[in-house]
Design goal:
The complex is a heterotrimer of chains A (257), B (158) and C (129). Chain B is of the alpha+beta class and 158 residues long. Helix content of chain B is 16%, strand content 37%. Chain B folds into 2 domains: 30 residues, no CATH class; 118 residues, SoxY domain (Immunoglobulin-like, Sandwich), CATH 2.60.40. In chain B, strands 1, 3, 5, 6, 8 and 9 form a 6-stranded mixed β-sheet that branches. A 3-stranded antiparallel β-sheet of chain B has the order 2-4-7, with no helix packed on it. Chain C is an all-beta fold. The chains are: A mainly alpha (257), B alpha+beta (158), C mainly beta (129). Chains A and B meet through helix 2 of A and strand 3 of B.
């Protein structure tokens, strides 16, 4: 981690003064920046460790749970039809909450309201499995979050977070991911930070994890206090990242170094 | 306990005591890095006193890997895989992981093809050795060097 | 709840060499990592993997902590007859998972089976569906 801090510190000094958004034609998935071996791991469903969570999610989909004794399947039927495109449009506006919520929060809303079961903890095995299972049903589809009068303020808040300098290293997300993508940082190439493959299997974690886990890792990396899981700042940032990646193809569960 | 006992000696004693109490190797506390000599010792334990010749077996490893936590590895042996002439086993070792053994794969004529693939962890840039044991009792080896950008095994668990 | 993904062609010609891919969820805790407070996280790995074909062992592996988390093993066997392939993983702390896959082996007059890539992976599950 010290190595990372020193490298990022040097980058902070060299970084340009203003952040320019990546032109739509120049946008590339993190997949393109990976080695041949890691790409091969993602491409093969029989070798991709993320598929283990998808498999488990499929089992949970059928499992009757909670005081209502209901399974996801009881309301949603065949996931290939009912969940197709769902992950591609989250975070989405939730009328009851009056703000956009993430896919994980949506799943927990269903658990609490429809299944009368307690919500699953963030980054728990079950929640990751269900999220991976739902996200898998959007594979190959373009990201398509809805930005309208209701969600615009939250998109703006997310964009502000992305461009705001934070932490002891006083870095903004934009400085690495808009201005310096493609260059090396502590042994890996800086990607453009498009969330096309989440939840994904990160080799460093040796496990599947959510986008929020990755965002918190980044915040710790720039020595900022990471927002809590489910915090509005993180969901707004997710919304902005998904909007920034609009039209790009979903490929969950991805593999990343 | 003498205050000048080195930490390594203390840990080895503690491990030994645990083993002596029949607790087994629930906690394995070893030096941070094995040495090429320890790898040779591990190989000797598996192979015995037999001579190991280079050849026949091919070890495929990427020359550089971004993250040492999941390195794809394939071992192939040229062999007819008949009852009379086949590969009995393939053993893989590393030079600088905390422990030299990686895996032993047991094949036989039912395999049809002497080819095994898996993913391994590598703690550092180092050499990896594959040794195959043929049905005629001979041993053959191949080695490959690999550069590891981010180490496995030694990161802190959170 | 451990899940395992096994890829075995559902049909093969007699005498054909088939490739089997197995993937099982397991952290393969090495025993060399420490918590933030410095305490060693105890070793917890899968130590042995065995594949039997109609009861006869055709492949096995002894694993050590250097095998990556969620162990992935690819090996081959000759499709000699129809039947069942049984896969078992055992390890520390009483870990034990067994999965099986059926295979239909036809004679040489059987139409060649479609290449593995066009077949979706066969998923097997632990526990009630």
């Amino acid at each position: 981690m010290r190595r990372f801090g020193a490298a990022v510190g040097a980058l902070a000094v060299a970084a340009s003064a203003f952040a320019g958004e990546i032109a739509p034609s120049e946008r590339r998935s993190g997949y393109d920046f990976m080695s041949r071996e890691t790409r091969a791991m993602q491409d093969d469903d029989t070798a991709n460790p993320g598929m283990l969570w998808v498999l488990e999610g499929g089992t949970l989909w059928e499992k009757k749970t909670g005081a209502a004794g209901r399974a996801c399947a009881d309301c949603h039927g065949d996931p290939r039809a009912s969940m197709k495109g769902v992950a591609a449009r989250y975070p989405a506006f939730d009328a009851a909450m009056g703000r956009p919520i993430s896919l994980e929060q949506r799943i927990n809303r269903c658990r609490v309201d429809r299944q009368q079961a307690p919500p699953l903890a963030y980054e728990s095995r079950e929640l990751l499995a269900l999220t991976a299972f739902v996200a898998r049903q959007s594979r190959g589809l373009p990201i398509d979050v809805t930005i309208d009068a209701r969600t615009q303020p939250f998109l703006d808040a997310g964009r502000a977070t992305f461009h705001r300098r934070q932490g002891q290293l006083n870095l903004a997300c934009a400085q690495c991911h808009d201005d310096n993508w493609g260059r090396q940082l502590a042994g890996n190439v800086i990607p453009q930070a498009h969330p096309t493959g989440y939840p994904l299997y990160r080799l460093e974690w040796q496990s599947l994890g959510s986008l929020q886990r990755r965002l918190r890792n980044c915040l710790v990396g720039i020595r900022a206090e990471p927002y809590d899981y489910g915090a509005p700042e993180l969901v707004d940032l997710e919304l902005y990242l998904m909007w920034r990646a609009r039209g790009m193809t979903m490929d969950a569960p991805a593999v990343r170094p | 306990m003498d205050r000048r006992t080195s930490r390594r000696d203390f840990l080895k004693t503690a491990g030994g005591v645990a083993a002596g109490l029949g607790l087994g190797s629930v906690i394995t506390v070893v030096p941070a890095r094995a040495t090429p000599a320890e790898m040779q010792e591990a190989i000797r334990k598996v192979v015995g006193g037999a001579r190991i010749s280079p050849g026949k077996v091919k070890l495929d490893l990427p020359p550089l890997i971004e993250n040492g936590n999941a390195v794809p590895l394939t071992v192939t042996v040229e062999s007819p895989m008949t009852e009379a002439q086949h590969v009995r086993a393939v053993h893989v070792f590393t030079e600088k992981n905390p422990q030299p053994n990686v895996a032993s794969f047991h094949l036989g004529p039912r395999a049809g093809r002497a080819k095994v693939a898996t993913r391994i962890r590598l703690a550092d840039s180092q050499n990896v050795i594959a040794i195959c044991e043929l049905s005629d009792g001979s041993f053959w080896s191949d080695s490959a060097g690999i550069v590891v950008t981010l180490a496995a095994c030694l990161e802190d668990g959170i | 709840m451990a899940s395992a993904l096994i890829n075995v062609p559902p049909r093969a010609k007699r005498g054909e060499i088939i490739e089997i891919k197995t993937l099982i969820s397991h952290t393969m805790e090495t025993g060399f990592r420490r918590t933030q407070l410095g305490a060693v996280i105890p070793r917890d790995i899968i130590r042995r993997f065995v594949c039997t074909y109609n009861g006869t062992e055709v492949f096995s592996a002894d694993l050590h902590p250097a095998i990556a988390a969620n162990p992935f093993i690819v090996f081959s066997t000759i499709a000699i007859e129809s039947g069942t392939l049984v896969f078992s993983w055992t390890g520390d702390n009483g870990f034990s998972v067994t999965e099986s896959a059926a295979i239909i082996v036809g004679g040489p007059e059987m139409a060649p089976h479609t290449p593995q890539r066009s077949e979706p992976p066969r998923e097997t599950r632990d526990g009630p569906r």
